[in-house]
Each structure stands twice: as C-alpha cells, then as structure tokens.
Design a protein that fits this description.
With 251 residues, this protein is of the alpha/beta class. It is built from ten helices and seven strands.
C-alpha cells in the first residue's frame, strides 16, 4: 500500500497495479511547501477529497492525530474525514512534544474509541487504524507499544500500526499480540521483503513519506548540481516524457 503525495503520484502508482494506496501527511505537506504536521484540518480534508475523487482504488488516509487532542474533537474531525471518500484512516498517539511524546494511556485509548464511534455513526464502513508512535517519537519501548496496540484493538481499531519497528522479532511480537486483527508495517531501506513480512503474519505494508523523499532527493540533487557546478549530468537517465504522457493519458 504505497503512499502517494498528490494526484499525479497516486495515478502513477495505480498504473503499476497496486490494489490500494495510502496518503502521507509528510509528503503532502512538502508538496505545498510546509513541514510535516503543519497542514491544517481543512487542507487535509481537501487533499483527501481530491485524491478520492480521481483514484479508483481504496485510499487509507494518514489523518495524523485526528487534528485534535480531546476525544470529542477527534470524533468530530473523523466524522468530516469519512465523508471525503476514503476507505480508511489512522489516528496516532503522538503529542508532538519531545519531552512527553505520547498521549497518556487513558486519553490515547479514549481517542481511538471516539474515532470508532464517529465511524460507526457515519455508516460508511471506513477502516480504522490505531497507531502507536513510540518507536519514531523517542520512546522505543516494545512492551508499552504492544500494550497500547492491544488497547486500541479493544477500543475498536480494525488494524494496528507501530511505525518504526525494525526487527522481525518485534514485528512478530506485535502480530501475535493483536491477532487476529491485521498489522500494518512501515518499511524502510534496507528492510525485509514483502514475502518475508507476509510469512511473519503482516497483512499491510506502507512506505510513509519514503517515495516522496526519493522524488525530492532526485530534484534537489539535480538542481544542486546545476546551482553549484553549472553541469547537468543528473538530468540524464530519467523516464522519457512520452512515457509519462502515456501514463497520464485520460481514459
């Protein structure tokens, strides 16, 4: 389930045969000149609406922390998000405060429960993913992560996700703890293969902002060469315009 950041990247990934896509909050933010976590709720909702309108694949929304702290606010914002045409969304438990990176356990669980209630009341059937961010927010505690994911599953999350897990043993432990509910794994380079993750019981794989970083790396490296050296070697080896035009031809 790769992560496009705009309509063009979404259509490109869809053309490669992927069966589902997921948005990336970081990739979208960079595409409009913002840092990650600096996009407003209204901007995020407009992005989800635009992506859902043109891509005929299920799209899971990176809905950050629900754009609210209190459960009532999360529920209200989720109720708006499910109207955009998305097939799923995730709610994180990170605070954005390095000194206290995760919401307190009772509040974090209540936030997932509120998102569940909002989805159920909408009648949309949108799939809810509960995310515990400890491994990427400065608290890489496997026991705490599993405790949270199990609680999120009990609170109504359909899928569980702990970005930042790097060892197959940790991944297997999470899969076993929340079974039979599915687990999403965030991949990076180097990492296991799709087949190895499937053998470990992983049901969903995403790449977060990695594809967006690949694209930005190519642009910045090529532009830096021009700015610093006055040479253009990095403009070679690209996909031809005819191939891109064919991929984006209206059907």
């Amino acid at each position: 389930m790769p992560n496009p950041w705009d309509i063009g990247s979404a259509r490109a990934l869809a053309s490669l045969g992927f069966k589902a896509l997921a948005t990336t909050s970081a990739g979208f933010a960079w595409s409009i000149g913002r840092r990650d976590q600096a996009v407003s709720l209204d901007e995020a909702l407009a992005h989800l609406q635009a992506m859902s309108a043109v891509i005929d694949l299920p799209i899971n929304a990176d809905f950050e922390g629900g754009f609210a702290i209190e459960p009532e606010g999360v529920a209200a914002n989720v109720a708006r998000a499910v109207k955009t045409g998305i097939a799923g969304l995730s709610i994180e438990d990170s605070t954005g405060n390095a000194a206290d990176p995760l919401f307190e356990f009772p509040l974090a669980v209540a936030r997932i429960r509120a998102a569940r209630r909002a989805i159920d009341e909408s009648g949309t059937g949108v799939l809810l993913t509960g995310r515990s961010e400890g491994f990427i927010a400065g608290r890489p505690d496997l026991a705490e992560t599993i405790k949270r994911l199990v609680a999120y599953a009990e609170a109504g999350a359909d899928c569980l996700y702990a970005p930042g897990l790097k060892s197959m043993s940790d991944i297997a432990a999470v899969v076993a703890a929340v079974a039979p509910k599915p687990v999403n794994v965030l991949v990076h380079a180097p990492f296991a293969t799709v087949a190895q993750l499937a053998d470990a019981g992983v049901r969903r794989i995403s790449v977060g902002g990695a594809l967006a970083r690949v694209a930005w790396t190519g642009l910045l490296d090529a532009a830096q060469e021009i700015a610093s050296n006055g040479t253009f070697s990095r403009l070679g080896g690209t996909r031809p315009g005819t191939e891109l035009n064919a991929m984006f031809r209206e059907t």
